[in-house]
Amino acid sequence: MINKKMILEKAEQLVRSRLEGDSSGHDWWHIVRVRNTARTIAMEEKADVFLCEMAALLHDMADDKLTNQPEVELANLQLWLASQDLTEVMISDIIQIITTMSFKGGGGQPMVSLEGKIVQDADRLDAIGAIGIARCMAYSGSKGRLIHDPAKQPRERLTPDEYRNGQDTAIMHFYEKLLKLKDLMNTDFGREMAEQRHQYLENFLTEFYAEWDGQR
């Protein structure tokens, strides 16, 4: 019988050792929040909670935002999963989730499993609301991007390369990604959770532009 608690603890140790010092908004505490949200949605949607937690914990381990060798990191992750007491189906499901969930300018492949949809929703929920704004600013700062430049306008129909090329600002990122996430939620409970966080983004932008123009 699989000792799920032990495997989750080992996954925690692996991820924390890798991401604890990250300052781009993809740190260990981002992982904790995504895992907790995924668990909440999974229980509401009657999904496999263990699979959701595992995918949530591991979802940034081979992300090309955080490594220059995503293929190598993915292979290492597959080897690590194979060393755990998991079935081949479980391993395949986890890998499928973490390789499909990235936004990539809105052009990513759709999730096929309920668990994948849940983990994707949880990750996207952490990109909106008050924490989403904080993470957006942290990530922009880590990449040397401006907060705002009125001469730069949001881009449409971005390729993955264009989305990641750094030719944007923190405020542009709201329009190119953050404000789109509410309508991209997969689950009913995810959509419900997104409503308030999305409104917080809208309110922030209203205040931001008023302050930018010296009106407040």
CATH class equals Mainly Alpha
The first-to-last residue Cα distance is 62 Å
Low-confidence stretches: none
Along the chain, the helix and strand elements come as HHHHHHHHHH
Summarize the biggest pleated sheet: none
For the residues shown, what is the average pLDDT? Answer: 92
Number of individual domains: 1
Radius of gyration: 18 Å
Helix count, DSSP H or I runs of 4 or more residues? 10
Looking at the structure, the CATH topology is Hypothetical protein af1432
Structural class: mainly alpha
**In CATH terms, what is the architecture?**
Orthogonal Bundle
Shape: globular
> How much helix, percentage-wise, in residues?
55-70%
Task: Report the sheet-strand fraction.
Answer: under 5%
Write up what this structure looks like:
This protein starts with a helix and ends with a helix. The protein is globular. The protein is built from 10 helices and no strands. The mean pLDDT is 92. It has one domain: Hypothetical protein af1432, CATH 1.10.3210.50. Helices cover 61% and strands 0% of the residues. The chain is mostly helical and 216 residues long. α2 (28-45) runs antiparallel to α3, α3 (49-58) packs across α6 (114-125) and α6 runs parallel beside α10 (188-212).
